UniProtKB/TrEMBL annotation:
Name listed for the protein in its UniProt record: Anhydro-N-acetylmuramic acid kinase
Reported function: Catalyzes the specific phosphorylation of 1,6-anhydro-N-acetylmuramic acid (anhMurNAc) with the simultaneous cleavage of the 1,6-anhydro ring, generating MurNAc-6-P. Is required for the utilization of anhMurNAc either imported from the medium or derived from its own cell wall murein, and thus plays a role in cell wall recycling.
Keywords noted in UniProt: ATP-binding, Carbohydrate metabolism, Kinase, Nucleotide-binding, Transferase
Keyword ATP-binding recorded: yes
Broad class of enzyme this protein falls into: transferase
Enzyme Commission number(s) of this protein: 2.7.1.170
Organism this protein belongs to: Hymenobacter psychrophilus
Residues reported in the UniProt entry to bind ATP: G21, T22, S23, L24, D25, G26, L27, D28
Superkingdom of the source species: Bacteria
Length: 404
């Protein structure tokens, strides 16, 4: 605790942010130097790596991932095992980068979301209106395994304060990427797609512009695309550069059926996950439109269109009929030219670029977010954002795990 108090007073901190997302492609590890805190934060990314998950690793996570019913024994074992595995991966990165654990101030661990249950999605009769979310990979294992003080389990505070536990991106995007020059959407195309809306900053009152920033999920990003590729091409996990989708044709009837889900018209902000946008949702829509035998290229083309339409609809809900803002993309889907082209078509008045144009590596952005949140937990203040229904809970997030 003395060490934490000391750290809080330092002008800068060296923090590793960890993110393991819904795509289960690997653990993102971002070693950051953070200067200051709050709106004065400045960040340097010193090192970044994605430690890929082996097939057997993914198999274990999939035993419980987004499943309504699982073995409680398996879940318990996985919680400890993931913490230990993530610690091992962090140590391997540090070894590679020739950085000693003692040279790192904090580890910020998101863990692995295994179930996301916002009230609108679970509708369980025993828990009406209750938002909940569960991340595995216990932070004590990371702290003890690496010797680095670890801040983990960020999402619970957000839920406790009235949010759905996600997206947390608004907190980091607001601190790092707000601009006096332009209105921005920070669009993350992961397994699930989400964006942060950032109005222009005004010169004086940062509190005023903070009042309108918020983030929301928009629907599937890559998750359904990956599901289809895995089912049709064993050993492959995604449609590289959208080549298969580019060769297909959008099936209008299937698209309409997929878009009929009330999630797409629900007010912002909202969150979702593969619990909803998974194989059962796709199968039901295909069965209902007699398209179970659709060629895989057409199916992928339709799902790209679904992801792009989800983003465009949410952008219109946030910004009106003809959004005309700067959009900065990140996440794996930003590497998919077919998806990016569809987005530009849906939002013709927006200017698209990668977050790289803002100095933030697009694959590292979510891991960086957790480093930022840990920095705020230790040295910052709760941040107030959003207005009305879009109010973002004013909280500092994360729990402290000490190595000894
Ligand atoms: N070159 C590429 N072409 C097409 N798709 C790609 C490419 N590179 C990555 N992707 C997609 O990006 C996915 C990984 O994205 P990312 O790592 O952002 O997801 P995540 O962080 O796990 O998800 P989330 O943000 O929902 O938690 C891959 O599974 C794949 O679908
Ligand atoms: C519950 C959960 O893990 N949600 C993730 C997921 O991946 C993308 C999207 O769905 C987003 O809402 C969130 O992650 C990012 C890092 C966030 O909280 O901003």
């Amino acid at each position: 605790m003395h060490r934490l108090a000391h750290l809080a007073r330092q002008p800068s901190r060296r923090i590793i942010g960890l993110m393991s997302g819904t795509s289960l492609d690997g653990l993102d590890v971002a070693l950051c130097r953070l200067h200051g805190h709050g709106t004065a934060t400045r960040l340097e990314l010193e090192h970044f790596a994605t430690v890929p998950y082996e097939e057997d690793f993914r198999r274990r996570v999939r035993q419980v991932f987004a499943r309504e019913q699982v073995s409680l024994e398996y879940l318990t074992l996985l919680h400890a095992w993931l913490g230990r595995e993530h610690a091992r991966m962090v140590l391997a990165c540090l070894h590679e980068w020739q950085v000693a654990p003692a040279e790192v101030d904090l580890l910020a661990s998101h863990g692995q979301t295994v179930y996301h249950a916002p009230a609108h999605q679970h509708q369980h009769p025993d828990f009406p209106g209750l938002n909940a979310t569960l991340q595995l990979g216990d932070a004590d294992h990371l702290a003890v395994g690496t010797g680095i003080i670890t801040i983990g389990d960020f999402r619970q505070k957000h839920v406790a304060a009235g949010g759905e536990g996600a997206p947390l991106a608004a907190y980091g995007d607001f601190l790092l990427l707000s601009s006096p020059a332009e209105e921005r959407l920070l669009l993350n195309l992961g397994g699930i797609a989400n964006f942060t809306y950032l109005p222009r900053t005004t010169t004086d009152a940062s509190s005023q512009h903070a009042s309108a920033a918020f983030s929301t999920d928009t629907g599937p990003g890559n998750t359904l695309l990956d599901t289809v590729v895995r089912a049709h091409f064993p050993g492959h996990s995604y449609d590289e550069d959208g080549r298969l989708a580019a060769a297909g044709t959008v099936h209008a009837t299937l698209l309409k059926e997929l878009l009929a889900h009330p999630f797409f018209t629900a007010p912002l902000p909202k969150t979702t996950g593969p619990e909803l946008f998974g194989p059962a949702y796709l199968q039901a829509a295909q069965a209902g439109t007699h398209t179970l035998g659709l060629p895989v290229e057409d199916l992928l083309a339709t799902l790209v269109e679904l992801s792009a339409t989800g983003v465009a609809r949410a952008a219109r809900l946030a910004l009106g009929e003809q959004p005309a803002v700067a959009v900065y993309a990140s996440g794996g889907g930003a590497h998919n030219p077919v998806l990016m082209a569809a987005l530009q078509r849906h939002l013709p008045a927006c200017r698209f670029a990668s977050t790289a144009a803002l100095g933030v590596a697009p694959d590292a952005k979510e891991a960086i977010l957790f480093a930022l949140l840990a920095n705020e937990a230790v040295a910052g203040q709760p941040l107030s954002m959003g207005a009305g229904r879009q109010r973002v809970p004013a909280v500092r997030m994360g729990k402290i795990s000490l190595p000894d």
